[in-house]
Amino acid sequence: MSKEIRALEPQSVWNSFADLNAVPRASKKEEQVIAFMMDFGNNLGLETIKDEVGNVIIRKPATKGMESRTPIVMQSHLDMVHQKNGDTDFDFATQGIEMFIDGEWVKAKGTTLGADNGMGVAAIMAILQSHEIAHPALEALFTIDEETGMTGAMGLKGGLLKGEILLNLDTEEDDEIDIGCAGGVDVTASRTYNEEETPEETVAYKIFVKGLQGGHSGMDIDKGLGNANKIMNRLLFGSFENFGLRIAEIDGGGLRNAIPRESTAVVVIDKVHEGAFDFEFEALVEIIKTELKTMEPELYINKEEVDSPARVMSLGVQEGVIKAIYAAHNGVYRMSADMEDLVETSNNIARVTIKDGNAEVMCLTRSSVESSKNDLANALRATFELAGFDVELSGSYPGWTPNVNSPILEVLKSKYEELFQEQPEVVACHAGLECGILGQNYPEMDMISFGPTIRGAHSPDERVNIASVQKFWKYTLEILKNIPKQK
After folding, report:
1. Based on the domain organization, do 24 and 36 belong to the same domain?
2. pLDDT in tens, 243-300
3. Which of 79, 147, 174, 220 is catalytic?
4. Average pLDDT taken over every residue of the chain
5. What is the pLDDT of residues 413-436, one digit of tens each?
6. What is the distance, to the nearest Å, from the Cα of residue 64 to the centroid of all Cα atoms in its chain?
7. Are residues 201 and 478 in contact, defined by beta-carbon separation less than 8 angstroms?
8. Which has the higher per-residue pLDDT, 13 or 87?
9. CA dihedral (334, 448, 185, 25) positive or negative
């Protein structure tokens, strides 16, 4: 791990982050990082437990003079999104994240960085290790599987935590205080189909869509970023009518919570239409690039001739699948009427796979309004069912309803103004923070979220601002000193 990273200030935070990033920690594969965190707490001589689902809780008594303050929970999630560039040779199961400094930012070499939510975990680790930082009685809650279902937060039982205030360290703008977030539901459309022998007198191509920025399917959904699955579908739409295009396979996107950056497809067309197809394909590529040139300057779309596949999707099913993906909503569905510039409801068409008689489309639908979330999920369900898909709605989790009268909010606002001579932005976000879920079993707990500035989360462009981490750390220590007395 880079010595330059460990030398950054505050060293206690960056050293903890480097230690954490040496441990593989994909969502649903957190065994190694759970063991790491259990060893960390036990080696400090602190009460350390693992609950039934794998969340780790480390308890530290109040420092001298802080015994009368309200006990708190500091919470971050252990897992990270594993994404890498197509040309990056990296094994997330065995390798630690390779970090480097690029000007004002810390980045990773061709992969996600894990600053989401590793910087929050690292800050809590630094506090647990310290003998100088003033704080009330503290429970460090390290949840699992936040990124692919929030099952850690969902599985945390009521009565286990004793703290009355929860500080969630998973916000990605250092001038924002989050008091609410979106809920979500996974929409999965799947169907089988008959394959047919590839027609004679055809030519086969592999089509590539790559070079997109990608990003967080909640926080970045309103930025006008390209979606590789929708772009690929647009390239294929109409070609089966005009040029006899038949699909052999499609492999697009990855995780539900990441805007898809890449897609590939293997198709065949009637050889007699080869010249016309080339002309129309290149013309459409230029149109798409022109539309997206501001937000996606590195967009790359190309095709190359390949060996003909043995079988292709049956024509009737192919038409229905392409039209369903074209019709399915992607992006912002509704803006909030109550909070300025807040996305209320959205959908990300995250993953499209077609191969060997099986077709699947995976989406993540988010909303801060439960009825609107259900409305969009049902619209997607209807779209895909019309094309013969079976549709499953699963993994639903609630949003976090803002409390503008929160006592801890007043502390954070006043301390921010004192430290930085400006007012913070008090917001609700379109990401899925765990506060709403935790609040179901701890309804009386006062919750707030803040953190350092992170860009490009859930993509290999993920980066964290160095000066922002220093600001976040200074702010965190001031908050801890000013937790109100217990009533």
Report:
1. yes
2. 989 999 999 999 899 999 999 999 999 999 999 999 999 999 999 999 999 999 999 9
3. 79
4. 95
5. 999 999 999 999 999 989 888 999
6. 39
7. no
8. 13
9. positive
Which residue of the set 139, 146, 186, 446 is catalytic? 146
Instruction: Write the CA distances from 7 to 14, 18, 445, integer angstroms.
Output: 8, 11, 37
pLDDT at 247: 98
Beta-carbon neighbour count of residue 246 at 10 Å?
24
- Whether residue 215 is found in the same domain as residue 248: yes
Nearest-5° Cα angle at 147, 128 to 259: 135
Same domain as 161, residue 215 = no
Domain with 53, as residue range(s), is 3-181+399-481
| Distance separating alpha carbons of residues 230 and 184, to the nearest angstrom | 21
Closest CA relative to residue 297, chosen from 224, 213, 235, 208: 213
Residues linked to residue 32 through DSSP beta bridges, in sequence order: none
E strands of 11-110, at which residues?
Answer: 47-50, 56-60, 72-77, 99-102, 105-108
| Cβ 161 vs Cβ 458: under 8 Å | no
Tokens of 66: 């802080």
Check residue 418 and give its pLDDT.
Answer: 97
Give the residue from 397, 430, 448 where a domain finishes.
397
State the Cα–Cα distance between residues 192 and 129, nearest whole angstrom: 54
**Torsion over CA: 165, 170, 176, 180 (sign):** negative
19 included as an active-site residue: no
Q: Mean pLDDT over residues 106-119, rounded?
A: 97
Among 487, 339, 480, 486, residue whose Cα is nearest residue 412: 480
> Rounded to whole angstroms, how far apart are CA atoms 222 and 343?
7
| Contact of 462 with 423, CB cutoff 8 Å | no
For the chain, what is the domain count? 2
In whole angstroms, how large is the CA radius of gyration of the chain? Answer: 24
Say what the pLDDT of residue 337 is.
87
Please tell me the distance from the alpha carbon of residue 191 to that of residue 117, in angstroms, as a whole number: 35
Average pLDDT over residues 95-109: 97
Ramachandran area for residue 213 (φ above 0: left; ψ -120 to 50: alpha; else beta)? alpha
The kind and range of the H/E element at 202 are strand 202-210
- Beta strand spans in 261-397 (E): 263-270, 300-306, 311-313, 331-335, 343-355, 358-367, 390-397
Known catalytic membership, residue 79: yes
Same domain, 112 and 237: no
